[in-house]
Design a protein that fits this description.
two-stranded antiparallel ribbon; 6 strands; alpha+beta; 31% strand
């Protein structure tokens, strides 16, 4: 008999800017009601957006974004979202391909313009493996 391939946990970062969520000081406070509700919504949308791209990784049931931070964007009314996400990398399946993930996320966000009811800065999507 052969042992099942070992799964290794790996992290990647995901960054994007929301152009229709005005940044305010309460988004910088992790215990504020506005921060918590925004992160809950972001976690929902990001989880949905990652579902299809990670299918090819064989990691769908093993992916999550564990850390979110919100900060002021380049323009006064923008909020930049930084997420640290993880997935289980199975040696027998396809490896993580950040370029493929970027392309899939771009497609799923209407060419980096929409994430749910949020508008995105088209030049802000960044995936780092």
């Amino acid at each position: 008999t052969t042992a099942a391939p070992k799964q290794t946990s790996r992290n990647f970062t995901l960054n994007f800017t929301l152009t229709n969520l005005r940044y305010t000081a309460d988004l910088d406070a992790p215990s504020s009601r506005r921060f918590l509700s925004t992160v809950k919504v972001m976690n929902h949308y990001v989880s949905l957006a990652l579902l299809v791209p990670l299918l090819g990784l064989g990691a769908v049931s093993q992916r999550t974004c564990v850390t979110f931070s919100l900060r002021s964007g380049r323009h006064r009314d923008d909020t930049t979202v930084d997420a640290v996400c993880s997935y289980k990398d199975n040696a027998s399946l396809a490896r993580f391909d950040r370029e493929k993930l970027y392309q899939e996320l771009s497609t799923m966000t209407n060419n980096v313009t929409k994430l749910g009811h949020y508008s995105l800065d088209r030049s802000s999507l960044y995936v780092d493996g």
